[in-house]
Design brief:
The structure holds three protein chains of three kinds. Chain B has six helices and 14 strands. Chain B is of the alpha+beta class. Chain B has one domain: Aminohydrolase, N-terminal nucleophile (Ntn) domain (Glutamine Phosphoribosylpyrophosphate, subunit 1, domain 1, 4-Layer Sandwich). In chain B, strands 1, 6, 7, 8, 9 and 10 form a six-stranded antiparallel beta sheet that branches. A five-stranded antiparallel beta sheet of chain B has the order 11-2-3-12-13, with helices on one face. In chain B, strands 4-5 form a two-stranded antiparallel ribbon. The N and C termini of chain B lie far apart (about 65 Å). Chain C is an alpha+beta fold. In chain C, about 25% of the residues lie in helices and about 30% in strands. The chains are: A alpha+beta, B alpha+beta, C alpha+beta. Chains in contact: A-B, B-C. The interface between A and B is large, with 52 and 53 residues. Chain B: Keywords: Proteasome.
Chain lengths: ~200, ~270, ~220
């Protein structure tokens, strides 16, 4: 309540499947208990095979999205190639650590496939410590609930269709136990030849 | 552009003054140890990262490479140990390139202590530094405020008391490599079981004089999660979907074609 | 900050401190420095075999008390200054203890708002033989025949005052320091471990160590 990263609310998570990754978030934007918008997406496309989730203080979410879009554009102009997810993760890390003594109030996630189409996911704390995970990463006001759901439901090597069900159910049931998250949800499944976006039907209370 | 930026500091101080708190950084409530033996030095660490009472990472890496033969174990604020270690690692590399000599442990330690002292304890990095250099094997530790210690065995982090109890009872002069590995692993395990901030596995790095450093990632795994007896896989179509859209990715594949003499004979 | 009442007794949260018993005593042929070996973080002994006797130049040492980080940083600075200074002296000359002590004083005084450092600087040089300078918190400097400092020193002011004799023999001086520090370590909870000594005279440096069982109190 008194923490800037839980004023606006919102949650996100990412999971690894068989030759695919999934990243999902809710759509709520609020001011404490007052809901303001149900179309606030917290997942952003970096390139065809890298996406990032940004939860926390909404102003920082928007600012950082613009900052990373800018930094990624510069990278593509300089390098003339798409950024790898692990490279992007290190870019996020140093960008956050730059503000070590006045951090952005946000908990980013990165999910994507590398140049060999190998899945990559990771999470960060607000000052840029990377949490490399083989299974799943979570972030946001429902992160405690998400940890519980994911520990229970996750299993390795899920096909894209099955991974979608697992990540969706983990998110939906976690945000239902968080007053600051919910109000709609979206899921992205990234595979080697396509990115599928799905808007979920959720509770609206 | 370069270096740290304090742009948000004023804003966040204002937010704090209005009753908003600071966010919780991932800390490595940790057990790390180091121990010398006859002909080298060993460091070891547990693999739990925590954010408050939540286990943020069950198998994180707390053993960092400063140079090929100098490694360090980190406790405290996870981001600080990681970043300070990367900074000093690159400064060591540049230094050894310009001096055309192998980096020394004392150099690494001095760079670390001077950097940490400059930040007056605000960088929460507590490190055990160990390794081989032309002057032999060394084991030292640095604390966040910039003080350093030297010793035959060391422990740091929230589990340092549990680990030190094991080191103080088990340590003896002139141990063999195997004895020292066992002692370090036992000390970390003591932290894993008895300290709430430490858990999961034991990582270990052996630096023997005249040999390459060998990292034993997950040297012990006393906390393997038992496999689920049944699957929680959902039937496809369980989740209600309002809208769905597909973005096709055009993948550019590069293949290398070698031109041999045979390949050139087109009209054979 | 109020220039009159400066809070000098604070340690930063979680800082490693040396609640210490240290002393340096001149004797007939030179000077002897002594110290306990305990470093603490709160009530935990972070190091029980610390070396608080730090070399600044060939036969000039210092005893450190206060914050471990601060005193190490100051000692490193002065050591660096003396390397630069010594390299510019004529080849047959060496820095004197008074020069080193005055550089310590300069650093400690100029940064007194940011330092928790109580230092005894002692050394042997060919010009004046053994000499002892005390540089307590605040950055003043006091030349003395002998000096005691650190949290444990409060317990032995009386004893030292009664038993110190000018121009002692070496063995007598070692015994004086050993007894004084043993007593300080006995009564002060922040001091303990082994007794370390450094003897500085015309022959150079000699180090002594006394383990707990060798100290009878």
């Amino acid at each position: 309540m008194s923490d800037p990263s839980s004023i606006n609310g919102g949650s996100a998570l990412a999971m690894v499947g068989k030759d695919c990754v999934a990243i999902a978030c809710d759509l709520r934007l609020g001011s404490q208990s007052l809901g303001l918008a149900n179309n606030f997406e917290k997942i952003f496309k970096i390139n065809d095979k890298v996406m990032m989730g940004l939860t926390g203080l909404a102003s920082d979410v928007t600012t950082l999205h613009e900052l990373f879009r800018f930094k990624n554009n510069l990278y593509e102009l300089r390098e003339e190639r798409k950024i790898e997810p692990s490279t992007f993760a290190n870019l996020v890390s140093s960008t956050l650590y730059e503000k070590r003594f006045g951090p952005w109030f946000t908990g980013p996630l990165v999910a994507g496939l590398d140049k060999h189409n190998k899945p990559f996911i990771c999470g960060f704390d607000s000052i840029g410590c990377i949490d490399y995970a083989k299974d799943f990463v979570v972030s946001g006001t429902a992160s405690d609930q998400l940890y519980g759901m994911c520990e229970g439901l996750y299993q390795p090597n899920l096909e894209p269709e099955d991974l979608f069900e697992t990540i969706s159910q983990s998110l939906l049931n976690a945000v239902d136990r968080d007053t600051l998250s919910g109000w709609g949800a979206i899921v992205y499944i990234i595979t080697k030849d396509k990115v599928i976006k799905k808007v979920l039907r959720t509770r609206q209370d | 552009m370069a270096g740290l930026s304090f742009d948000n500091f004023q804003r966040n101080k204002f937010l704090v003054s209005k009753g908003f708190g600071q966010p919780m950084a991932t800390s490595t409530g940790t057990t790390i140890v180091g121990c010398k033996f006859n002909g080298g030095v060993i460091i070891a660490a547990d693999t739990r990262a925590t954010a408050g009472s939540i286990v943020a990472d069950k198998n994180c890496e707390k053993l960092h490479r400063l140079s090929p033969k100098i490694w360090c174990a980190g406790a405290g604020t996870a981001a600080d140990t990681e970043m300070v270690t990367q900074l000093i690692a690159s400064n060591l590399e540049l230094h050894s390139l310009s001096q055309r000599r192998q980096p020394r442990v004392i150099t690494a330690l001095t760079l670390l202590k001077q950097h940490l002292f400059k930040y007056q304890g605000h960088l929460g990095a507590y490190l055990i530094v160990a390794g081989n250099d032309p002057t032999g094997a060394h084991l030292m530790s640095v604390q966040a405020h910039g003080s350093t210690d030297i010793g035959e065995y060391q422990s740091l982090g929230s589990g340092s008391l549990a680990a030190m109890a094991v080191l103080e009872t088990g340590w003896k002069p002139n141990m063999t490599k195997e004895e020292a590995m066992k002692l370090c692993a036992d000390a970390i395990e003591s932290g894993i079981w008895n300290d709430l901030g430490s858990g999961s596995n034991v990582d270990l790095c052996v630096m023997e004089v005249g040999k390459d450093a060998e990292l034993h990632r997950n040297y012990l795994t006393p906390n393997v999660r038992s496999e689920k007896l049944k699957s929680y896989k959902f039937d496809r179509g369980t989740t209600a979907v309002l809208r769905s859209s597909i973005h096709d990715v055009l993948d550019v594949e590069e293949t290398v074609i070698t031109f041999g003499n045979d390949a050139m004979e087109v009209d054979a | 900050m109020n220039g009159i009442s400066v809070d000098i007794n604070h340690l930063k949260k979680g800082e490693v401190s040396m609640g210490t018993s240290i002393m340096a005593v001149t004797f007939k042929d030179g000077v002897i420095l002594g110290a306990d070996s305990r470093t603490t973080t709160g009530s935990y002994i972070a190091n029980r075999v610390t070396d608080k006797l730090t070399q600044i130049h060939d036969t000039i040492y210092c005893c450190r008390s206060g914050s471990a980080a601060d005193t190490q940083a100051v000692a490193d600075m002065v050591k660096y200054y003396m390397q630069m200074y010594a390299s510019q002296l004529p080849i047959d000359e060496k820095p004197t203890t008074s020069v080193v002590a005055n550089i310590f004083q300069e650093v400690c005084y100029n940064n007194k708002d940011n330092l928790t450092a109580g230092i005894i600087c002692a050394g042997y040089d060919d010009k004046v033989g053994g000499s002892v300078y005390s540089i307590p918190i605040g950055g003043s400097i006091h030349k003395q025949d002998y000096a005691i400092a650190g949290s444990g020193s409060g317990f032995i002011y009386g004893w030292c005052n009664e038993n110190y004799k000018p121009n002692m023999e070496k063995d007598e001086c070692v015994q004086f320091i050993k007894t004084a520090l043993s007593e300080a370590m006995k009564w002060d909870g922040s001091s303990g471990g082994v007794v370390r000594m450094v003897i500085l005279d015309k022959n150079g440096v000699e180090r002594l160590i006394y383990y707990p069982h060798e100290i009878k109190v």
